[in-house]
Amino acid sequence: MITIEHVSKTYKKGAWALLDVSVTLGKGMTGLLGPNGAGKTTLMRILAGLAAPTSGHVTVAGIPLTRPDEIRQMIGYLPQYFHIYPQMTGREYLDYVGVMKGMSDLKARRLDIARLLEMVNMQDKADKKVRTYSGGMKQRIGIAQSLMGSPEVLIVDEPTSGLDPRERVRFRNMLTRFSLKRTVLLSTHIVADIESNCRQVAVLNQGSLLMTGDLQDLQGCGQGYVWEAMLSAEQYHALDPSLVMSSRQQEGMMICRMISMHKPHPDALQVEPGLEEGYIALLRRERDE
After folding, report:
1. Yes or no: domain 2-218 corresponds to CATH 3.40.50.300
2. pTM of the model
């Protein structure tokens, strides 16, 4: 369990990256949603012991961040921007990470590396130099290093960046299996990354925590804000583009779904929100308020 209590982080000139964030994360996978610049990466770095909060308190399984050596042994971390030594092979790099994590038994380390390479579908490229890898292949090695030693807590920041659709699905399923008995925090700005895998969700925006709950709670944030209308091409082009969530053509007309506090068009009818619409409505409400 991760407990975050009144955590704030300020940088030079008084700019706040996080402001009084409090949330408790139990076993299973929690999605941390928010637009770029919301403070997600700052929070991830604090939880991984790579940055200190300006104020507030964090514990991982009851251990405070002031005991970083113990924390790091429990946590696997995949940062948003992942760099690895280009002169190493993928296998050599994973071995290096295992040593840094205190995995001193060579045989056990090699078995773990073989298991992870198969898990991320990199066994056939493991002995090639990292400098020859594509961006997606580097990302898969990054995923593998975060899982070295089967950590109790896994923190992954925008992990599906650079993965093709098939690998994205494979990774989501892998995270789901991993989270059955562990705590996983998945940071993303893509709602689809959490829709079918996360038990809980937290939404950050401009450093503040807007909501925590289950996916139904997030979907419910769009209640009363989502509208649908069948419009002519002229009516469609006259709409405020910032209101339109999606549109499709049907028999010469445009079927539009819109997010608005007020009725956006005389022909619009209120409809049940989807998960992404709930998320966007929450951000819009926060902006308008």
Report:
1. yes
2. 0.87
